[in-house]
Amino acid sequence: MSSSNLFEEKTVRTEQIFQGRIISLQVDEVELPNGSIATREIVRHPGAVAVLPIKGDRMIVVEQYRKPLGKSLVEIPAGKLDGGEDPLEAAKRELMEETGYTCPTIRHVASFYTSPGFADELIHLYVADELVPGQANPDEDEFLEVTEVTLDEAKALIREGRIEDAKTIMAVYAWQLYRLTGSYA
Fold this sequence. Notes:
This protein is an alpha+beta fold. The chain contains three helices and ten strands; from the N terminus they run βββββββαβββαα. A hairpin with a 5-residue loop joins β2 and β3. The protein is globular.
């Protein structure tokens, strides 16, 4: 597999369409490798973190309403990075804010792009398995319920369509891999 920029698209022009609190949208005119011109709509995002909190034989999840989907989802704790914030520190912050738990050792599992065809959002996934209980402190606009599920229950929630986001599905299968092999990756 080639790692060169053989397929690179050179930006000819960029137009900023929207600048919001979380994302921005731009439209780029690009020159393709064959010399023709195309348009790319690009969502810019500061990046995010997600934490797989393991408590014995259960994972801690939160259920919250997701307006873009018009329904509630069961997810692992997660949140966006704040202006150049270190992902590990953000993971610790999100774990505490959403669940009340802290963890002395949070380990990186993987980082992945959510939708590289139109967005640059990069999520850093961590695992926390030495949980210390505390008091949750969600953001003022966050309403969520914290629960614990087994691996089998998490997989059932995926089948039922209650866990549908990529970060949580990836975390569930990373946890399953760990239980089978002793490694998250």
